[in-house]
């Protein structure tokens, strides 16, 4: 059987993926990526983030009798994911680090290592399905709608697709947990990871402060209405994201939401819920898993993880695309991903740069 | 196109990492057996169980002493090579401090971390001054420099007998001679030397010598420190006074017996084994240098011990990836030191010879008693295939 390089995080999904690949007779090579290290002084670092995951993955691999290696990708990860995350917040946008990681670090690195190790296939524990038929590879949403992770994979290098396997994409989370328990996997009852992996405390401002030291994004500024009326003050626009309600102060007659962040003037623009809606979205940094859709094609667009997809018409112009939504959506956020589907099929996506309301 | 991918799973893996550790010899297991079960006594006890254990321990000490040309009173059992190095260097410095003197430590740039880190720590806590001695490109140590640096005040010089990463043999006897006029104390880490090159402390005025069991087909977790009579060492840990107070704690009798059996055999068999290992190494060295472009024999201009072949491979960014790829083809090797893990940085030994930005990835093949020429042929074929594949992959 063919040799498969499997990304193992130490979590239950990639652990079950490993077991399933072994069962189906593949020659599985497990790898865990060490993406970052928290301890600033290694000689004193007690726990290095991610090391628990590495230990879990190693244990699962040993139990399955497959080799397991650790790749240190900290340098690449810092450059491509963490630095981008910081830069985006400094620009007043809300980044999507998991998308960046999958697009730029994780799968690219797996592809290179796979080649080096003589692996024909690359696999991960993502909840997505892939079909290989007639020389074409199609990426589909995971069967478990509540766990589907296709949103995070729009940036995959297209030339990698024919090599990919996603062994748990056709299972539900419940089935995966049951398999893990039946197999006696060490990670069966492990909690779901929710936080951004390099911000385990959940407080990304500490990271920004450390990385940026001093920057306008961390300095006080004014909270204003669309008409320029000053309604409050804030301690740094990097704490805000479009659609956010918290942290704006009280005293408004109706609930206020962040509509826009203006880095040049350090202003955070707020407004009522009605003002949040937009129907035209400009998207850049595009990636397509196959041919780009033709102008005017009807697609489904997902604007946030777990958001319900919106029907839209797409217009691709070289390195930009304009999406015209069939109905306006709230809080379309610069920096986040706009992910394009045809039904369940992932076509591609990009980063949202602007959004506006053009109808009525 | 990759013929290696076919059917390797059914082939036995090849272990070429004897410099990392070795399997215990049957004779060693056999010698130890009784002291792990029926003869379990504590050597400090007065009763018969104690006496049996004490006898075995002292017999082991005699055997070790005889094997390396020392006196029994000069051999202390410790818990491995790292502990032996630490005790030699820090223990000697501490003894000097107790006499009110501030000692200095000279180490070569290619010492094991156990020596380097111990020295650095002594400097950090203000117990000694540390000087690093570089190696010349032609393969020598600056003996005049060593002589000069040890003339002023109390000094210990640590020169490993055989380097673990490249197999370089360092001129320990020459350093001993150079130090005779200065009063400097000489320590040598002989962990990689015993059984591979002649090691005899009666041949020169070497003062302290470290060795460990698991590199010579003995047990892990046991080693010795040779301390020449008249040299003062202060203990680093304190307790019940075992090993003349130098290394307190209930003795590992089985370990000592195993160590003695292992070192006895290693030294008895050293000469023929060295010849056999050298011919294996030369075969692999020739095969890789002629069949692969862009490879360098690390330390090739130096005198080297016969069991280590370190190869620098050009055009591969990440040396660990090379080791992983070889492992997947059933060939177990390392980059140089099994003790330090990971990273793409050149090791301190590699940097000492080839600079910090050396563009070669390192593979260390190390050979031992079970290595056959068939093993090598498999490893040679795998290495060539993997190197070519990795170069293509980028």
Q: Which characteristics define this entry?
A:
heterodimer, A: 360 residues, alpha/beta, Rossmann fold, SH3 type barrels, Elongation Factor Tu (Ef-tu), domain 3, 3 domains, 6-stranded antiparallel beta barrel, 5-stranded parallel beta sheet, 17 strands, B: 394 residues, Aspartate Aminotransferase, domain 1, Aspartate Aminotransferase, domain 2, 2 domains, 7-stranded mixed beta sheet, 3-stranded antiparallel beta sheet, 11 helices, 39% helix, 14% strand, disordered N terminus
What does this protein structure show overall?
The complex is a heterodimer of chains A (360) and B (394). Chain A is built from six helices and 17 strands. With 360 residues, chain A is α/β, with parallel strands linked by helices. Chain A has three domains: 3-182, HUPs (Rossmann fold, 3-Layer(aba) Sandwich), CATH 3.40.50; 214-271, Roll (SH3 type barrels); 276-356, Elongation Factor Tu (Ef-tu), domain 3, CATH 2.40.30. In chain A, strands 12-15-14-13-16-17 form a six-stranded antiparallel beta barrel. Chain A has a five-stranded parallel beta sheet with strand order 3-2-1-4-7, with helices on both faces. The longest helix of chain A has 20 residues, at 97-116. Chain A is globular and about 65 Å long. The N and C termini of chain A lie far apart (60 Å). The relative contact order of chain A is 0.13. The model of chain A is unreliable at 39-49 (pLDDT under 50). By secondary structure, chain B is of the alpha/beta class. Chain B folds into two domains: 3-16 and 270-393, Alpha-Beta Complex (Aspartate Aminotransferase, domain 1), CATH 3.90.1150.10; 26-268, Type I PLP-dependent aspartate aminotransferase-like (Major domain) (Aspartate Aminotransferase, domain 2), CATH 3.40.640.10. Chain B is 39% helix and 14% strand. Chain B has helices at residues 26-36, 48-68, 81-98, 113-124, 143-151, 172-179, 253-268, 270-291, 319-328, 348-354, 373-393; strands at residues 14-15, 75-78, 104-108, 129-133, 155-158, 185-189, 208-212, 223-227, 295-297, 308-314, 331-332, 360-366. In chain B, strands 2-8-7-6-5-3-4 form a seven-stranded mixed beta sheet, sandwiched between helices. In chain B, strands 9-10-12 form a three-stranded antiparallel beta sheet. A two-stranded parallel ribbon of chain B has the order 1-11. In chain B, helix 1 runs antiparallel to helix 7. The longest helix of chain B has 22 residues, at 270-291. The radius of gyration of chain B is 22 Å and the shape is globular. The two termini of chain B are 18 Å apart. The chains are: A alpha/beta (360), B alpha/beta (394). The A-B interface holds A 3, 27, 29, 67, 69-70, 72, 112-113, 115-118 and B 2, 4-5, 9, 320-321, 324-325, 327-328, 342-344, 389-390, 392-394.
């Amino acid at each position: 059987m063919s040799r498969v390089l499997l990304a193992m995080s130490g979590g239950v999904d990639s652990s079950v993926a490993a077991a399933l690949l072994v069962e189906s007779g593949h020659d599985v090579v497990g790898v865990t990526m060490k993406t970052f290290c928290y301890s600033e002084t290694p000689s004193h670092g007690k726990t290095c983030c991610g090391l628990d995951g590495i230990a879990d993955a190693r244990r699962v691999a040993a139990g399955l009798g497959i080799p397991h290696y650790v790749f240190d990708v900290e340098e690449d990860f810092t450059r491509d994911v963490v630095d981008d995350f910081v830069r985006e917040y400094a620009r007043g946008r809300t980044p999507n680090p998991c998308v960046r990681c999958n697009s730029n670090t994780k799968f690219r690195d797996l592809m290179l290592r796979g080649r080096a190790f003589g692996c024909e296939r690359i696999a991960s524990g993502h909840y997505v399905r892939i079909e290989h038929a007639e020389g074409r590879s199609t990426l589909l949403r995971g069967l478990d709608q509540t766990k589907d992770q296709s949103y995070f994979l729009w940036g995959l290098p297209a030339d990698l697709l024919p090599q990919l396997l996603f062994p748990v994409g056709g299972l539900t989370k419940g089935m995966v947990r049951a398999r893990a328990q039946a197999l006696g996997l060490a990670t069966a009852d492990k909690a779901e990871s929710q936080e951004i992996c390099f911000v385990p405390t959940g407080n990304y401002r500490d990271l920004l402060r450390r990385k940026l030291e001093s920057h306008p994004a961390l300095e006080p500024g004014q909270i204003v209405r669309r008409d320029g009326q000053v309604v409050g003050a804030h301690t740094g626009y990097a704490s805000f994201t479009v659609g956010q309600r918290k942290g704006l102060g009280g005293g408004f007659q109706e609930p206020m939401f962040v509509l826009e962040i203006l880095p040049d003037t350090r202003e955070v623009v707020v407004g009522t819920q009605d003002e949040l809606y937009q129907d035209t979205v400009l998207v850049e940094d595009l990636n397509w898993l196959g041919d780009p859709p033709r102008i005017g094609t009807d697609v489904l667009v997902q604007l946030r993880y777990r958001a319900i997809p919106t029907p839209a018409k797409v217009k691709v112009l070289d390195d930009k695309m304009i999406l015209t939504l069939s109905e306006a959506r709230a809080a379309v956020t610069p920096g986040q991903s706009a992910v394009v589907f045809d039904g369940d099929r992932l076509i591609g996506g990009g980063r949202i740069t602007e959004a506006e309301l053009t109808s009525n | 196109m990759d013929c290696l991918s076919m059917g390797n799973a059914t082939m036995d893996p090849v272990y070429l990492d004897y410099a990392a550790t070795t399997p215990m010899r049957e004779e060693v297991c056999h010698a130890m057996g009784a002291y792990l079960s029926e003869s379990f006594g504590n050597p400090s006890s007065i009763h018969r169980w104690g006496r049996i254990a004490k006898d075995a321990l002292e017999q082991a000490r005699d055997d070790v002493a005889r094997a390396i040309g020392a006196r029994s009173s000069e051999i202390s059992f410790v818990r491995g090579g790292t502990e032996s190095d630490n005790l030699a260097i820090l223990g000697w410095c501490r003894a000097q401090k107790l006499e009110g003197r501030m000692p200095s430590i000279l180490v070569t740039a290619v010492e094991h971390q156990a020596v380097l880190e111990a020295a650095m720590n002594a400097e950090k806590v203000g117990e000694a001054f540390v000087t690093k001695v570089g190696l010349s490109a032609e393969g020598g140590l600056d003996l005049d420099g060593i002589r000069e640096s040890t003339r002023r005040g109390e000094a210990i010089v640590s020169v490993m007998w055989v380097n673990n990463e490249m197999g370089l043999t360092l001129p320990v006897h020459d350093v001993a001679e150079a130090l005779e006029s200065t009063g400097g104390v000489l320590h040598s880490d002989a962990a990689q030397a015993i059984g591979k090159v002649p090691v005899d402390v009666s041949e020169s005025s070497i003062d302290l010598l470290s060795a460990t069991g698991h590199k010579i087909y003995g047990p892990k977790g046991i080693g010795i420190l040779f301390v020449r009579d008249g040299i003062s060492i202060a203990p680093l840990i304190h307790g019940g006074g075992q090993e003349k107070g130098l290394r307190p704690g209930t003795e590992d009798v089985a370990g000592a017996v195993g160590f003695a059996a292992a070192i006895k055999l290693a030294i008895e068999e050293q000469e023929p084994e060295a010849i056999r290992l050298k011919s294996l190494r030369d075969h692999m060295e020739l095969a890789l240098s002629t069949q692969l472009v862009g490879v360098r024999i690390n330390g090739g201009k130096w005198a080297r011990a016969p069991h280590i072949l370190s190869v620098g491979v050009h055009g591969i960014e990440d040396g660990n990836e090379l080791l992983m790829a070889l492992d997947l083809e059933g060939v177990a090797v390392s980059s140089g030191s099994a003790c330090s893990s990971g990273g793409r940085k050149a090791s301190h030994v590699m940097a000492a010879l080839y600079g910090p930005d050396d563009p070669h990835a390192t593979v260390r093949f190390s050979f031992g008693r079970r290595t056959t020429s068939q093993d090598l042929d498999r490893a040679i074929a795998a290495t060539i295939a993997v190197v070519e594949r990795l170069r293509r992959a980028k």
